[in-house]
Structures are given as structure tokens and as C-alpha cells.
Specification:
Length: about 290
């Protein structure tokens, strides 16, 4: 019993940390591009002292194609954060987090289309179930006006962009040390987000201390601590089990949004969310890559 608690305790804590991501975004009260930039920039800044010694020689050894893949992976990650964080100002935390959690479904579809890796019958059923759940959430939100529906679509766009990031980065993960890969894509994402903010006249300075504290919390708690502990857990716990645990993020985020903001998602989000979580559970245990 003690061994099991030791193995699963860090993973449970990681899920709790990741669940705070949407909460810190709301508390920041800043434009989505600014929030996205500071999350990636500060996380890169904190990671750099530990990753740079191995990252610099690894980056120099990359061929032109691999360097382009690294840039593409980072750009896709930037678009993921920009679209998903924008969705949180338009729709409920529950709907946003549930829909962005559909990344594995988009990854399966991209692997099928781009890499000629067709899903098994079980995983194809999971994709259909997830699409049905997303449609149920969107149909309920459409009755509340155009803004929640736009938020749902942005969250789905965030899931699709993260899937592109995963698919592009698959070959790089074996070519680079983990620190070099993560620091590379985070730094590229920060540069892309800074460029988007500059071209859109979105300010990156002049924010009050409360907003800066939310930026810092985003970089430390869900990004470095939460996802860092997930990577540590993957060394001791099967990936399918880790994937099932991560399905707790929408539940944790929804409970936190209720406790802090009094936000109660509509019944359609609860029903559609149940379908999405069921589909993701099938994906997590279905032997997908």
C-alpha cells in the first residue's frame, strides 16, 4: 500500500497542479497572447539553466529538416496556447478544458492522415464518441449565444494545434535529449507568441503585480511542476495509467472554477463531457502510440 501511494502520489499532485492552469489564466485578466507568451517565456527561463548544457550541442547537431521540425513544433505549441487561452474568456472552464483534452483524438486523426497509421476499431469508436461529446457540448453552448460557441471552437482549435505539435515532434524526441527538445519548443513558442503580440499591438509590459503573479504561477505550477511530475511518473507507471489519471484535469478544473468563480457548467457540458472523457479513457487504454 505504501509503495502504491508513493508511486501515485506525485501523479495525483501533478493532476492537481495542471488543473490550476485555467484558473491562473482567468486570474491573470490579461490578453490571451500576453498570458500565452509569459507562460512559455518564464517556463523557458526557469528551465534554461538545467537544459542548456546538453541542449546547445544537441541543437547544433540537428540537420536542416530536423531544425525545421523543431520550429514547426514550437509554432504549433504557440498556437495551441493562444487559441485555448482565448477560449477561456468566452466559454466555461469545464467546456474549454474538456474540449482541449481532445488532443489525443486529433493526434490519432493526424497520424492516420499524415503518417498512414490507421486507428484500430476500438480507437475509431473512441474518435466517434469524442466527436459526439464535443457536438453535444457545442449544441448546448450555442443556445447561450455566439460567444460560448466561439470559445468551444477555439478550444478545439487548441486541441488540434497541440496534436500537430505532438505529431511533428515525434521524430525529434528520439533525436534530442528531453531537456533540449522541451526547451527548444518552449523557446520557439515564446518567440512566435511575442511576434503575434507585437503584430497585433497586444502589450507585453505594464501589467499590475497581481497579473504578473498569475503569469509566474502559470509557468511554475501547471507547466514546470505539473507536467514535470507527469514525466517523472511515466518512468514508474504505464503510460495508459498516467493517461487515465490526466482525465482528472477537467474535473479538477471544473471544481476549482465552481469554488473560486461560482461557475456552474450547463447540463449539456456535463453530458457531452462524460462522452468525451469516456472516449479519452478508451484512447488511453487502447494501445495508441
Amino acid at each position: 500500500m505504501t509503495l502504491r501511494r508513493t508511486r501515485f502520489g506525485p501523479l495525483l499532485f501533478a493532476v492537481l497542479c495542471i488543473s490550476f492552469g485555467s484558473i491562473f489564466v482567468r486570474l491573470a485578466q490579461a490578453p490571451p497572447l500576453s498570458v500565452s507568451f509569459y507562460r512559455m517565456f518564464l517556463a523557458s527561463l526557469f528551465l534554461a539553466p538545467f537544459a542548456l548544457p546538453s541542449a546547445v550541442p544537441a541543437w547544433r547537431a540537428l540537420g536542416p529538416r530536423q531544425a525545421l521540425l523543431l520550429l514547426g513544433s514550437g509554432a504549433a505549441l504557440a498556437l495551441h496556447f493562444a487559441t485555448w487561452i482565448a477560449s477561456l474568456s468566452l466559454t466555461s472552464v469545464a467546456a474549454s478544458v474538456l474540449l482541449v483534452e481532445m488532443t489525443p483524438v486529433f493526434t490519432l486523426l493526424l497520424a492516420w492522415i499524415a503518417l498512414r497509421e490507421p486507428p484500430t476499431l476500438r480507437l475509431a469508436g473512441a474518435v466517434a464518441l469524442a466527436i459526439a461529446g464535443a457536438a453535444w457540448i457545442a449544441s448546448g453552448d450555442s443556445a447561450a449565444g455566439p460567444a460560448p460557441l466561439r470559445g468551444d471552437l477555439l478550444a478545439l482549435a487548441g486541441a488540434a494545434c497541440l496534436a500537430v505539435h505532438h505529431v511533428i515532434g515525434r521524430g525529434l524526441r528520439s533525436a534530442l535529449p528531453v531537456g533540449a527538445y522541451v526547451l527548444g519548443v518552449w523557446a520557439v513558442a515564446a518567440l512566435v507568441l511575442a511576434s503575434l503580440a507585437f503584430s497585433s499591438n497586444v502589450p507585453l509590459a505594464g501589467y499590475p503585480p497581481r497579473t504578473l503573479a498569475a503569469f509566474l504561477a502559470l509557468a511554475l505550477v501547471p507547466t514546470l511542476l505539473g507536467h514535470g511530475l507527469v514525466n517523472v511518473s511515466l518512468r514508474a507507471i504505464p503510460a495508459a495509467v498516467v493517461g487515465l489519471f490526466l482525465l482528472g484535469e477537467p474535473i479538477g478544473a471544473s471544481l476549482l472554477a465552481y469554488a473560486l468563480f461560482g461557475e456552474v457548467p450547463p447540463a449539456s457540458t456535463a453530458i457531452g463531457g462524460g462522452l468525451v472523457l469516456g472516449a479519452l479513457a478508451l484512447v488511453a487504454t487502447g494501445g495508441s502510440r
